[in-house]
Write a structure and sequence with these properties.
Length: 327
């Protein structure tokens, strides 16, 4: 089954064609990073206009690189939410239009499920597993018991992981998008240089506001003297990745999961991936671990087409579905 996916929930205009949810035939991403860099973050109205400018070109390029004609596609899909409403509308209307013109089904997809499904691409992963989903808008541990069958076991009570990365990066004077910059500097810093706090919250919660404030205080303490930026990055990164994985492992053990999976933009983080793969060792629980390929961690449409195959939104009349901002 060939599915055409469209992703426009934030600042990437992306299309992909994926066979049977796992085999990527073509994958095109047009990033708006350069536009938003001038503002230090994503400006929703600007992002929506850029999607409008890019969508037709990205759709055409996706067909061209695949060497596939639109009438060979079995279904068209797009992210319906959560995300920026004006941005989502562009992708949703493009996918609905293609489905009407070529008389094929339209399959709406939840963005968070799409991030999880990125793990099915080029792998043989099958449920059950426990997934740590860390993106710019969400932080969740999800017990996935079957395709389209999951339960949230923990979530953040304040900032999302990617959001904390971006805010701490800004405190350190790093350019947008901060997460990836912080990760780069952390790699040459001393991760034990500073002891930063881990929040004392319940097993089903994450909280990062205390950590963020601690970094702010640390930054302020270097007023007038040169700040050891790389050491601060490395110490912050060590603290947050430890918190995330410790809780995920605890939940996986409680749930009897033998497989742990990463998802979302922060799944591209070097230290998080390194620590994830340490969980394969017998002394760390002999877990099977999966993380999406780097290009499928941050927003892309291959994961949307995969989710349309494995975990479509269950709605009675997809063509009447509207976009949604939260969920
Ligand atoms: O999943 P995503 O592309 O968009 C959302 O659905 O939110 O995630 C974007 C987030 C941003 O906050 C970005 O800074 C973060 O993922 N990110 C990273 C890295 N690459 C992207 N955070 C830490 N380390 C990275 N290497
Ligand atoms: Zn995302």
């Amino acid at each position: 089954m060939l599915i055409f996916g469209i992703e426009t929930s934030c600042d990437e205009t992306a299309c992909a064609i994926v066979k049977d949810g796992r085999e990527v035939i073509s994958n095109v991403v047009a990033s708006q990073i350069k536009t938003h860099q001038a503002f230090g973050g994503v400006v929703p109205e600007v992002a929506a206009r850029e999607h409008l400018d890019a969508i037709n070109i990205v759709v055409e390029e996706t067909f061209a690189t695949a060497g596939i004609e639109p009438d060979e596609i079995d279904a068209f899909s797009s992210t319906a939410g959560p995300g920026l409403v004006g941005c989502l509308l562009v992708g949703l209307n493009a996918a609905k239009t293609l489905s009407l013109v070529y008389n094929k089904p339209y399959i709406p997809v939840n963005h968070l499920n799409a991030h999880v499904c990125a793990n099915f691409i080029d792998t043989r992963l099958e449920p059950p597993f426990t997934c740590l989903l860390v993106s710019g808008g969400h932080t969740q541990v999800i017990n996935v018991s079957g395709y389209g069958n999951s339960a949230i076991a923990a979530s953040t009570i304040d900032d999302a992981t990617g959001e904390v990365y971006d805010k701490v990066a800004r405190l350190l004077g790093l350019p947008y998008p901060g997460g990836i910059q912080l990760d780069k500097l952390a790699q040459s810093g001393n991760r034990y240089a500073f002891k930063l706090p881990e929040a004392k919250v319940g097993d089903d919660e994450f909280s990062f506001s205390g950590l963020k404030t601690a970094v702010l205080r640390l930054v302020q303490s270097f007023k007038g003297v040169e700040m050891p930026v790389n050491d601060i990055c490395a110490s912050f990164q060590e603290t947050i990745t430890t918190t995330l994985l410790n809780k995920t492992v605890k939940i996986a053990k409680k749930n009897g999961s033998k497989t742990i999976v990463l998802a979302g933009g922060v799944a591209a983080n070097s230290r998080l991936r390194e620590k994830l793969f340490e969980l394969e060792k017998p002394e760390n629980g002999s877990f099977s671990v999966f993380a999406p390929k780097m290009k499928y961690c941050t927003d892309n449409a291959a994961m949307v087409a995969s989710a349309a195959y494995f975990n479509p939104m269950k709605v009675e009349n997809p063509l009447e579905l509207e976009v949604f901002s939260r969920g």
